[in-house]
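Sequence only, no structure available. Ideas?
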Amino acid sequence: MKHLRNSRTTLVAAIASAALAGAGAAATVALALDDDAAAPARQVTVANATAAASSSSSSVAEIYKRSAAAVVEITVGSAGQSSPFGGGSQQSQGSGFVYDTEGRVITNQHVVDGAESISVTFANGTSYPAKLVGSDASTDLAVIDVDAPASVLKPLDLADSSAVEVGDGVVAIGSPFGLEQTVTTGIVSALRRQITAPNGFAIDDAIQTDAAINHGNSGGPLLDLDGKVIGVNSQIESQSGGNDGVGFAVPSNTVGKIADALIADGSVEHAYLGVATEDAAGGGANLSEVRSGTPAARAGLESGDVVTKLDGQSVESADELRRLVDARSPGDEVELTVERGGETLNVKVTLGTRPSA
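Reply:
I predicted one. Tokens follow.
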């Protein structure tokens, strides 16, 4: 992958920021590769803001009327940078949507990262304080709990993101640039993209869309034409940083799994091998680096090893190895079939817990 500065392509998280006490600008999330991470989403040129395909009897207006009440604007207060004149504070805005009638709201991790205060504003203009339930930087998802009356808690249903197809019509609702309750529409441009989480790890199966997504749409829902959530809008890839690029949403199947875990435990643990990988020429995952002190290093894996199976399941690529590891839990023991110097070895590895950064 080319360095982003050299390619003049900027990958930014769709969050709007406004500073108090004198300074601030639009916030972005700097994303970088890390162990067990795959390359970020590739730049793809598509038509922007295409009209939604009509596979449902619901019009965009009907979807908006039915769903907008569940979409919220999230304002986060955090400490500002110190200056010769003293410390300041700053505010940033993002989006989210009501997940259940208990007051839980789903958004992006990068929206609430570093929050000292959180406020949620509903479609009727009322605002209520909220607190963080838990967040997961590896999937860029977070759950907050808003202290709001039941009358404004109108949850959205999650769709099965595995059933989404390229060309399906979509609707995005959020607060780009702080303009609350903004709706845009388009299609699913591609599936199974990989985007990079704020902590550098890969997020699998991201949904690519040409629906206009801008700073402040982060955490808002990407809806199908039945008004169900198929993803959480998280990133744009663009040369200018605007919606002339393409948008990416974390798929709803990931959203539901992570949200439920955060609600139950406040945190999520991901399995960790501790390697950097690339596709091997003849198939399999080549270990381009084995990080010191990691489960892979303790098991005796070496740089240059090519993993061809995990627990007997074929590994055809670096991405496939990472997906198979992600499907396991910390503490699981797995057996890797490895090609090394013309020999075939079976190596047992006890997976660790992925570091937070």
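The chain has six helices and 22 strands.
Hope that gets you unstuck.
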